[in-house]
Amino acid sequence: MLSESKMTDEDQRLGQVEQIEKRKTRKRKMDVDEPEPGTTESQPAEDGAENLEVLKPAFPPIKKEKLADGTEIRKVPVPQHRYAPLKENWMKIFEPIVEHLKLQIRFNLKSRNVEIRTCKDTVDVQNLQKGADFVRAFILGFDVDDALALIRLDDLFVDSFEVQDVKTLKGDHLARAIGRVAGKGGRTKYTIENVTKTRIVLADTKVHILGSFQNIHIARRAICNLILGSPPSKVYGTLRTVAARSSERF
């Protein structure tokens, strides 16, 4: 009985060794079949990639004469509560767009949009986007003088978000969060604006920030902390340290 058990154990070991050797031979065959990197078989693919790079089309920037009418149009929708401010400040909006950017502008009463388009006198087509950003910033609630900075400077942006994007609040909790951001008499909002060199508009539950990319990031973090419930004194302290660091970098 002992000899038979020894034989069966040896047979099992031999079977396991044979299986391992078969696996090793399979792996060796696979390694031999696969071409090594840098061999002649991989060269045709590389040559094809080089040919593709050479054959890439290089389209020149399109000229305004080749467009349908040689004109491009931007439309900025105007909500009802901004009709009166738009009417009062129309000449302040009209002059920089027509005289400096050499664009045409009108207010379409049927579609209720401010329409801006290029004309023969337009020097640069990029001015059309600048003019549209300027009008859009005014429609969002910024002053005309603040929105004019979008025309004069290239590194300014407008960022918008809602209070409920930061934290889902309802009723009195939402009102208190907006009150924390504004402060007594708008004091907190003015402090954030002056420290971060931005302009902030609180329109109901929406917050709009005008400024450079880095300054918008600092102001947005301060506003988010206020919405989440941080006291203004703590937010002021972090604002001062962050603003000092950013001024040291530049």
TrEMBL record:
<dbReference type="GO" id="GO:0003723">
    <property type="term" value="F:RNA binding"/>
</dbReference>
<dbReference type="InterPro" id="IPR036612">
    <property type="entry name" value="KH_dom_type_1_sf"/>
</dbReference>
<keyword id="KW-0694">RNA-binding</keyword>
<comment type="similarity">
    <text>Belongs to the PNO1 family.</text>
</comment>
<dbReference type="InterPro" id="IPR055211">
    <property type="entry name" value="KH_PNO1_2nd"/>
</dbReference>
<dbReference type="GO" id="GO:0005730">
    <property type="term" value="C:nucleolus"/>
</dbReference>
<keyword id="KW-0539">Nucleus</keyword>
<dbReference type="Pfam" id="PF22891">
    <property type="entry name" value="KH_PNO1_2nd"/>
</dbReference>
<protein>
    <submittedName>
        <fullName>RNA-binding protein pno1</fullName>
    </submittedName>
</protein>
<feature type="compositionally biased region" description="Basic and acidic residues">
    <location>
        <begin position="1"/>
        <end position="13"/>
    </location>
</feature>
<feature type="domain" description="K Homology">
    <location>
        <begin position="165"/>
        <end position="228"/>
    </location>
</feature>
<dbReference type="InterPro" id="IPR004087">
    <property type="entry name" value="KH_dom"/>
</dbReference>
<feature type="region of interest" description="Disordered">
    <location>
        <begin position="1"/>
        <end position="52"/>
    </location>
</feature>
<dbReference type="InterPro" id="IPR055212">
    <property type="entry name" value="KH-I_PNO1_first"/>
</dbReference>
